[in-house]
Write a structure and sequence with these properties.
alpha/beta, 2 domains, six-stranded parallel beta sheet, elongated, Glycosyltransferase family 4 protein, glycosyltransferase activity, Glycosyltransferase_grp1, transferase
Length: about 400
């Protein structure tokens, strides 16, 4: 068995979980060929990602002329694939119309040829968006069967525009990263395909999280609760609500927002308007080492998200023995246990979030440490990359002849 992994843009700093999954599969004896449609526009900085980039084949590197020829050949030999692409384009929203679907079909024609050349027996896409469009069209071009992993919330926000039902019906199997995610796939899959909907968590490497560093001093009147929030500055992550909650706290709390994104200017303005410039730090984007350094300086992680799949940043913080304050959405309550590994709050409720921040800030340091250790044990037991990759490998083997 030889598997091809397909991602739209790879590698990227936010996709370390894909890299870990691939390496863990290879450690279990499954060769993995890496494919991406395009290269990341930002420079690849980490040694690990440069190694992945060197092994990745980029479909769009083929050039426009070769893509056009591949599309013409695909249309002539496989009119059913053309009909599927046009149908998907009919239901697609902005950026997913018929022209875009024809581009995906051309990419699939290039990829199908590479599959034949390399004798690939299965394709697996990450994200149920355009990467899964491409592997679906590869199958319709007489290429290998496919599976895909959905993360959310994108797939669940626009299932019809993404032709999610068609993808689920035609896939050998589909993976969700949480039970909540599987429930959302069940809404769009025929009942007789529910047994093909599987849960495989994103994984973390326990070896990357040795004995945790001690918590910083406090929290106490002299040492404020130190929180870190890691994530892209975008509406769904809820950082603007977190600023509102910070302004309502009564206990001493300091927040570090690690990340960057389109909301960065608005966040800076909101922090200034709330008079929080001395209590909220914005160091910018950080790599894996930078995130771990920020966690080492924090008492707890805070994630005020409005929409998620199951945040890798949360499981990594818990593996580093940091309790969390997070919202009761998507897969988060499956990982966290309220009152044991941190605190769960309703999404969108600034007052409830502020109360949770105050509660964490007045928690006895030893109790906070014990909560962190409970969080670590839960994350490592549920998200060991080697155990999760073994589940995925078993699925590849069981379904390779479907």
């Amino acid at each position: 068995m030889r598997v091809g992994y397909v991602v739209n843009t790879y590698p990227r700093p936010s996709q370390t979980f894909i890299r870990r999954e691939i390496l863990a599969l290879e450690a279990q004896g499954i060769p993995v060929a890496r494919f991406a449609m395009r290269r990341d526009g930002d420079p690849v900085t980490s040694v690990e990602d440069r190694a992945e980039q060197d092994q990745t084949r980029y479909v769009l590197d083929s050039g426009a002329a070769r893509l056009a020829l591949a599309l013409a050949g695909a249309v002539l030999r496989h009119p059913s694939a053309l009909r599927a692409a046009l149908r998907a384009g009919k239901w697609g929203g902005p950026g997913r119309g018929r022209l875009r679907q024809l581009i995906y079909l051309a990419e699939a024609a290039i990829l199908a040829r590479q599959c034949r050349d390399e004798h690939l027996t299965h394709l697996h896409a990450h994200f149920g968006t355009n990467s899964t469009d491409v592997v679906r069209y590869v199958r319709l071009l007489d290429g290998p069967g496919y599976s895909f992993t959905t993360h959310g919330p994108e797939e669940f926000d626009a299932p019809q525009a993404l032709s999610l039902g068609d993808k689920l019906r035609e896939a050998r199997f589909a993976v969700a990263v949480s039970a909540f995610g599987r429930s959302q796939l069940s809404r769009w899959a025929p009942f007789d395909r529910w047994d093909r909907l599987k849960v495989v968590h994103c994984g973390i490497d326990p070896a990357a999280f040795p004995d945790p560093l001690p918590l910083p001093p406090g929290p106490s009147p002299d040492h404020p609760l130190r929180l870190v929030c890691v994530g892209r500055f975008a509406e769904q992550k809820g950082q603007m609500l977190l600023i509102e909650a910070m302004a309502r706290t009564t206990a001493p709390v300091h927040l570090t927002l690690v990340g960057d994104g389109p909301l960065a200017p608005a966040l800076r303005a909101a922090i200034a308007d709330a008079g929080l410039t001395d209590r909220v730090a914005l160091p910018g984007w950080a790599d894996e080492a930078g995130v771990r350094a920020a966690l080492a300086q924090a008492h707890a992680m805070v994630l005020p998200s409005f929409a998620e799949g199951l945040p890798v940043a949360l499981m990594e913080a818990m593996a580093a023995a940091r309790p969390a304050i997070a919202t009761i959405i998507a897969g988060i309550p499956e990982l966290m246990v309220d009152g044991q590994t941190g605190w769960l709050v309703p999404a969108g409720d600034a007052e409830a979030l502020a109360r949770a921040l105050d509660r964490a800030a007045t928690t006895d340091p030893e109790q906070l440490r014990q909560m962190g250790l409970a969080a670590r044990a839960r994350a490592l037991s549920r998200h060991d990359i080697h155990a999760e990759a073994a589940k995925l490998a078993a699925l590849f083997r069981a379904h390779q002849q479907d």
